[in-house]
Design a protein that fits this description.
Blueprint: E1 2-10, H1 15-25, E2 29-38, E3 41-49, H2 57-71, E4 73-79, H3 80-86
Antiparallel strand pairs: 1-3, 1-4, 2-3
Helix pairs in contact: 1-2
Length: 89
């Protein structure tokens, strides 16, 4: 299964590293990532893959919320099924 992670906030050192480390610790593989820094604002979108039988999606979400608090960013995790439903015409 796949999920989309978005991160937005003031740019600081280590945001990408902390989000990536959390994904790895929870067993999620990062498939694709794009990031931009606009003046002092950081924006990132990640596509991750994970095995739903091995990874607790809510734990991943909770762990990334903690990273967001630690980095003063807003991190949102959306399951691929919900993302696809929202963007279907």
């Amino acid at each position: 299964m796949k999920a989309i992670i978005t991160v937005i906030g003031k740019d600081t050192v280590g945001i990408l590293a902390k989000v990536s480390a959390t994904c790895a610790a929870d067993g999620a593989n990062i498939v694709e990532v794009t990031q931009s820094v606009l003046q002092d604002m950081f924006a990132m979108v990640m596509l991750i893959e994970f095995n739903e039988e091995k990874i607790d999606f809510e734990k991943l979400r909770t762990d990334l919320d903690a990273v967001g608090e630690a980095t003063a960013t807003k991190i949102h995790v959306m399951h691929e099924d919900i993302f696809n439903s929202m963007h279907r015409i």
